[in-house]
Amino acid sequence: MGYVLGIDLGTSSLKGLIMNKAGQLVAEASAEYRIDSPAPGFSEQHPEYWVIAFEEVITKLSFDVANFSAELEAISFSGQMHSLVTLGENNEVVYPAILWNDVRTTKQCAEIMEQLGDQLKEITKNIVLEGFTLPKILWLQQNKPEIWAKVKKIMLPKDYLAFVLTGNMACEYSDAAGTSLFDIEKHEWSTAICDKFEIDKDILPSVVASLAQVGVVNEVYANRFGLKQDVKVFAGGADNACAALGAGIVNEDYALVSLGTSGVFSSFEPEIVNYQGKLHFFNHVIPDVYYSMGVTLAAGNSLNWFKNTFGRGLGFDELLADVHTVAPGSEGLLFTPYIVGERTPHIDSKIRGSFIGIDTRHELKHFARAVLEGITFSLKDAQVLMETAKNKKFKQIISVGGGARNTDWMQMQADIFDAEIIRLEVEQGPGVGACMIAAVGNAWFTDFESCRDTFVQYQKETFKPKKDNVANYEKLYEVYREVYPATKNICATLTGFGEI
């Protein structure tokens, strides 16, 4: 039969999926690890955590899957983006990995934009943010010069794991694009950026395509798990690119909305589009194309906050049970989900959320519906930017995450996005994308479209926009867009007051 293994190296756990040539999920396993925070704003992990988790996962799978050792043919990866791994002379880790959600680098981000600004946006097609890799490098240079002096190679998390498995160092385009060091058009590390910040390009790994074979599983692991053949290892991709691939986004007719703790609206981009930093724009795992991505910092997090604060003791099903009885627009109640700041299209750490239009007739069900609508409006900001740039509407939008589990919210998405919304039959996230890279790399399929037809299935039930609801939401969205500029200065003042 033959198997591929997709490894999803996340922020708090590593997950492994085994899939066969028929696109069936054969088995899955996961292992958790901790995030270390030695100081406020710091978020770190030792790369050894990932290695231990991988060994635990592959051990579980080897016991659970018949003929695992004989049938495993290929491995690939999805990985958390941006996180900095630093290696020394003998490839030893010289400092804990600084993760994407570490926020110690505000000062360095300001320095980078001041010194490069428009040139950085032209080369990388993004502005720099605390999560990206370059400001982490500058932080090490400025605050840990004795550590920086030891650094001989820089890697990203999934690439470090591939190195452990194969002994070879490489970084693929989709992950390199999130470092603020990569020339997205030329597919190479930027000499201009590296020279500006005194980064020797020799410490950066070679860059390859996501489908590139970076080696085979080394003898130590092959013997340990009784592998009967050379298991090919393919470079893989960044988690958001793999999530889009795993949802079947292989052309520009479709978009993906993902509603987890944060929210993501992403789309396939066949050519370079310069969004001037209002959207993230990265190389895709699909050859020679790109993807754009808007981020709402508090999507599911807004709903969690609302439940814990105003619906304590209720489950989500109970909290949302009556939202269908409230008309679109929540009877004049509007919520902005800026409770931890916002990313798209307002890069503003000081903006805060709000309920606008509170009236004595509003009950819990109105507030609950307003929260769902506000989260969706925030993601519509990204949709509008993308569709305006493309001068076309998305044919369908695939919804994943918590928002795909509630049928009322699915209908709201259809009405607010004014598009047909569909769901996956089985939702396994970026790990499916990693499996697809392994399958195409291993020549099971000639391209990602044919692989998608086998590996990705959608539910038959779809959610179509309702004309009257669409019209109401179009008017309300224009009001929603007025809230940010109206509250920006107020929130900045209140945030400063709260810090006193």
- Uncertain runs are none
Number of helices: 18
Helix content: 25-40%
The assigned structural class equals alpha/beta
The total of beta strands comes to 23
Give the termini separation: 64 Å
Shape: globular
Approximately how much beta-strand content do the residues carry? 15-25%
Defining key terms:
single chain; 500 residues; alpha/beta; 6-stranded mixed β-sheet; 18 helices; 23 strands; 21% strand
Describe this structure in words.
It is built from 18 helices and 23 strands. The protein is globular and about 70 Å long. It is an alpha/beta fold. It is 39% helix and 21% strand. β10 (182-183) and β11 form a beta hairpin.
Describe this structure in a few short sentences.
Helix content is 39%, strand content 21%.
Helix and strand topology:
Blueprint: E1 3-9, E2 13-20, E3 25-32, E4 44-45, H1 47-64, H2 68-71, E5 72-79, E6 84-87, E7 93-98, H3 106-115, H4 118-124, H5 133-143, H6 145-148, E8 153-155, H7 157-166, E9 171-172, H8 173-176, E10 182-183, E11 188-189, H9 191-196, E12 207-208, E13 213-216, H10 219-224, E14 232-234, E15 237-238, H11 239-246, E16 254-259, E17 263-269, E18 280-283, E19 290-296, H12 300-310, H13 316-319, E20 334-336, E21 354-356, H14 364-390, E22 396-401, H15 407-417, E23 420-423, H16 430-441, H17 448-455, H18 467-499
Parallel strand pairs: 1-5, 5-14, 5-15, 9-12, 16-22, 22-23
Antiparallel strand pairs: 1-2, 2-3, 4-7, 6-7, 6-8, 10-11, 13-14, 16-17, 17-19, 18-19, 20-21
Helix pairs in contact: 1-7, 3-5, 11-16, 12-14, 14-15, 15-18, 16-17
